[in-house]
Amino acid sequence: MDDSAAKPAQTFRIETAGGAPRIAASIAVLIVLVLALLPMVASRTLVQDFIFLFYMLALAQCWNLLAGYAGLISVGQQAFVGLGGYLLFALTLIGGLNPLLAILLAGVISALCALPTALIVFRLRGAYFAIGTWVVAEVYRLVFAQIKPLGGGTGTSLTSSVTSSVPGIEQVRALLDVRTPAARDIVSYWVALTLVVATLAAVYFILRSRRGLALGAIRDQEAAAAGLGVDIYRIKLAVYVATAAMTGMIGALIYLQKARISPDAAFSVLDWTAYVIFIVVIGGIGTMEGPVIGAVVFYLMQRYLADFGAWYLILLGTLGILIMLFAPRGLWGLILNWRDVTIFPIGDG
Amino acid sequence: MLLEVTGLRKSFGSIVVADALDLVVAPGEAVGIIGPNGAGKTTLFNLIAGGLTPTAGHIRFDGRDLLGVAPPARCRAGIGRTHQIPQPFEKLTVFENLLVGAVYGRQKSEREVAQACGEILERLGLLRRANALAGSLTLLERKRLEMARALATAPKLLLLDEIAGGLTEGECGELVATIREIRKTGVAILWIEHVVHALLAVIDRLVVLNFGRKIAEGEPKAVMQRPDVHQIYIGIEA
């Protein structure tokens, strides 16, 4: 260090976009605690609703990292939801593994499958990349429809011995004095909560790390980032593989909860990509807060409007288009225009 | 030689934007490039920085052939560039903009480069804007950020693309002073500029391009006085 007092260069105060507010961290911990204890008092319907909210949020956070930061507009993430779901079925029904272990393994195998998939789709740019990912997802669907031990085109169900073999169900049943199906939901709820918190934490730490710095640069000016030494291909590949692993685990959990799988449902572009894109877009793409808000809005709409059938989908589409036209930064962007706040201090405006 | 360009050619179909170009830059040397719009100046930078692949010819940098080397690796080898239209990372702070270059261009941790980034910001007069979002900068500040970010990668060769364009006389003078400071640190400079007097205040050698070809090269003032340079560049008979 230079001890010359005339040099102000020694007194930098380094701030990054959005300083880390301790208070937000405390609130986050509190929210997680409340959510963890919620099943003690909540009805079974509410527990099931929250499981849905959790996995949609986790999927949205993954897609946001992929599209909002790495610029990889994939419309084929259902490939990994379906893959994770089918892996859970294969590993438990045929492999005889414990479901929780199967969820973890589904993540690992999804990452391994993402590598060769990336080698194909990364050759494509822009709209072609989007279409390419969709085509690949269709290929996954068709492949799994051929696997007879997993029910072929019509699908199959988990046996009750598998669904009841998740550790903790017995203890919850005894402790909270509920029936086995309700206890199963509560355990699934905790697994889903763990997964969504883990996803949020993973995305947060990726974005806070030097990779996050590069992803922010790629989001803002890809060519300039390359000129400054950022290896775009490698970082995008890492993000693609990491989100595939997370998406695969979420898929496994979703189908553990559903206990019934078919190729058309597991590789549904509407359920696992279109809704997810809707969540990210209305919440605010390229921010961590956006998908959280989007997921809550989507859940509320689904909860109260889904009975209107086709009209619900028309409303969903219209809302998405309106937000894209008039508030391209999403609901979180609207909030930022009104108040300068940050929940996840990762350096976006 | 630090940079050696030999027989460089780039064509898009029948349109030739660089033809039989030879160019050398010695370590620490400052070379200026002028030429009318469309002479292939920015194309030459894109070929050197790796955004474009040459149709024929070779580029050697620091003793290494750059054929097939991607832009990030060229940056790490020591080529830093600025863009004619500044391309800041708008949602990152000014300091973070520099960190990107320093962390990835030098392959070091944020902690190791933070001090150096601060010093570059100070030298370029951006220190008080360090924590502002880059999207909020004025044109002069954006141009300074372009240079600061390129310097953060610790380049051996700095490519400046019309960095003085669009600035007032006073701003331009400040910029020239800054570039002379940078030269003193031993960084070689290859500078494309329309503001000739700014260029002449810094460079050792001047190259004139027209239609992708080099038409003159040498001592700056002597080159500027050549009738053919006047004819092509300024459009009047000497």
What attributes characterize this protein structure?
heterodimer, A: about 350 residues, mainly alpha, two-stranded antiparallel sheet, 16 helices, 2 strands, B: about 240 residues, alpha/beta, Rossmann fold, six-stranded mixed beta sheet, four-stranded antiparallel beta sheet, 9 helices, about 40% helix, globular, nucleotide-binding (chain B), L-isoleucine transmembrane transporter activity (chain B)
Structure explained in plain terms:
Chain A has 349 residues and is mainly alpha-helical. Chain A has a domain at 42-267. In chain A, 71% of the residues lie in helices and 1% in strands. Chain A contains 16 helices and two strands. Chain A has helices spanning 22-37, 44-69, 78-94, 99-121, 126-145, 160-163, 169-176, 180-208, 210-220, 222-227, 232-258, 263-266, 269-283, 289-305, 310-326, 330-338; strands spanning 156-157, 260-261. The model of chain A is unreliable at 1-10 (pLDDT under 50). Chain B is of the alpha/beta class. Chain B has a domain at 1-73 and 189-238: P-loop containing nucleotide triphosphate hydrolases (Rossmann fold). Chain B is 39% helix and 25% strand. Chain B contains nine helices and ten strands. Chain B has helices at 41-49, 71-77, 94-106, 110-123, 139-152, 169-184, 196-200, 220-225, 227-234; strands at residues 3-12, 15-25, 30-34, 56-61, 64-65, 79-81, 157-161, 188-192, 205-210, 213-218. In chain B, helix 6 links the parallel strand 7 and strand 8. Chain B is globular and about 50 Å long. The model of chain B has no long low-confidence stretch (mean pLDDT 90). Chains A and B meet through helix 9 and helix 10 of A and helix 2, helix 3, helix 4 and helix 5 of B. Chain B: Residues 3-236 form the ABC transporter domain. Chain B: GO terms for molecular function: ATP binding; ATP hydrolysis activity; L-isoleucine transmembrane transporter activity; L-phenylalanine transmembrane transporter activity; L-valine transmembrane transporter activity.
